[in-house]
Amino acid sequence: MDVSKNSAGEFQTAQEAIDWIVGRMEKLGMKPGLQRMHLLMEKLGNPERRLKFIHVAGTNGKGSTCAYLASVLQDCGYDVGTFTSPYLVRYTNRIQVNGADIEDEVLLRLVNDMKPIVDEIAATEVGPPTMFEISTALAILYFGKVAYPDYVVWETGLGGRLDSTNIVNPIVTVITNVGHDHMDILGDTLELVAAEKAGIIKAGVPVITAVEPEAVWRVIEQTAKAKKATLYTLGDQFHLTDVTSELDRQSFQFNGPFRPIPELAITLNGEHQLKNAAVAVMTLEVLRQYYATIVDDVDLQKGLSGTKWPGRLEMVSTEPRILIDGAHNPEGAATLAAALQNVYTYKKLHMMIGMLATKNHTGYLRHILPLVDTLIITEANFHKKGDAYLLAEIANGLLREMNLEVDVAVERDWKQALTLLTNRTEQDDLAVVSGTLYLISDVRSWITYQTDSEKGW
């Protein structure tokens, strides 16, 4: 199939094409499995075989680990494609080369080329490709037949084993961690979730991880052993020492199996970002060792310190101070709570949250409630949003159980809730907006650009 020529197609604008893709989310939802992806790739000429993928899975930390990897590789002079989800402002944010979104006219051409193939597959027994499958295929088509990046930093959507991104054979695999998320789909124990994420491990392809505790790590180890894939684990094959932390700057020495690297620094906040950075550095060390990737220390230092990751411990306003963070599961809440206790100072803490219906709200709230003076509960503008009043019931029950006094308010309209949060936050206070990234993306766009986001998977 030739995608170099413009083709007259069903869609006239990029927005029409995007609406068609995104509209499939509500109609079809998510359908785990790789049959449709195999058919799509085959009919598109298997462009994924031309690319060098760094495949990244994990419950939390995937996005920032991807950001570190992309930033360093770019500073080393390589062209880097990234595929990440969900996006914060525009659909095209999810498919980038060197930080620049896929161009609208290229997206339009590629989607018009794919549409007849999607329709053809939809008519078979495997059924219609989903929103995420088409997005994944679009990214592969763009990277493999238009942009030709040197490396593709490739983030899983959900789980790993049956995720549409698992259609690729990467040169290195990363599993950041395993936590309580998407358990309705991936399994009701951490070991089952770990087994799903371990599904991205390929024969002979090295694996880097920061997974703990041991019972969960053991699942990753057993899969790696069965696939004869060398496993590099934080705290075992590689370590962080000489750690210093202050607001907007953390430094460490990296000690790995190939060499020590002193004086590395990051500007992202929170202890978890040190782990994510260490995982990224180990991944880059494997690329140096196995694939002769040229990573000079000066570029490594520059790339790490220059990494930005919107929507995670991001200060989007200074008057009043408003911090946004996409923590939406118990592990994310624990990480956010640690940062609020150790990194930031404030007189009072006011928090606004909105969740999806499927999340572990009790586990999340147990970490957050002891820290806050005000809790404003709202709803994301998304079809799977959690009911604010049900969430308030859970919060109030936990407050009684934990013998805490917190001012809990419910405001279903997130813009009204944001006004309420802003009005309550005085000069020495800190406001935090947390929960689903569907809410975070709206709040970020509204505060930064005074516009609504296109957010989505």
TrEMBL record:
<keyword id="KW-0479">Metal-binding</keyword>
<protein>
    <recommendedName>
        <fullName>tetrahydrofolate synthase</fullName>
        <ecNumber>6.3.2.17</ecNumber>
    </recommendedName>
</protein>
<keyword id="KW-0460">Magnesium</keyword>
<feature type="domain" description="Mur ligase C-terminal">
    <location>
        <begin position="311"/>
        <end position="436"/>
    </location>
</feature>
<keyword id="KW-0067">ATP-binding</keyword>
<dbReference type="Pfam" id="PF02875">
    <property type="entry name" value="Mur_ligase_C"/>
</dbReference>
<comment type="similarity">
    <text>Belongs to the folylpolyglutamate synthase family.</text>
</comment>
<dbReference type="InterPro" id="IPR018109">
    <property type="entry name" value="Folylpolyglutamate_synth_CS"/>
</dbReference>
<dbReference type="InterPro" id="IPR004101">
    <property type="entry name" value="Mur_ligase_C"/>
</dbReference>
<keyword id="KW-0547">Nucleotide-binding</keyword>
<dbReference type="InterPro" id="IPR001645">
    <property type="entry name" value="Folylpolyglutamate_synth"/>
</dbReference>
<keyword id="KW-0436">Ligase</keyword>
<dbReference type="Pfam" id="PF08245">
    <property type="entry name" value="Mur_ligase_M"/>
</dbReference>
<dbReference type="InterPro" id="IPR036615">
    <property type="entry name" value="Mur_ligase_C_dom_sf"/>
</dbReference>
<feature type="domain" description="Mur ligase central">
    <location>
        <begin position="56"/>
        <end position="283"/>
    </location>
</feature>
<dbReference type="GO" id="GO:0004326">
    <property type="term" value="F:tetrahydrofolylpolyglutamate synthase activity"/>
</dbReference>
<dbReference type="InterPro" id="IPR036565">
    <property type="entry name" value="Mur-like_cat_sf"/>
</dbReference>
<dbReference type="InterPro" id="IPR013221">
    <property type="entry name" value="Mur_ligase_cen"/>
</dbReference>
<dbReference type="GO" id="GO:0008841">
    <property type="term" value="F:dihydrofolate synthase activity"/>
</dbReference>
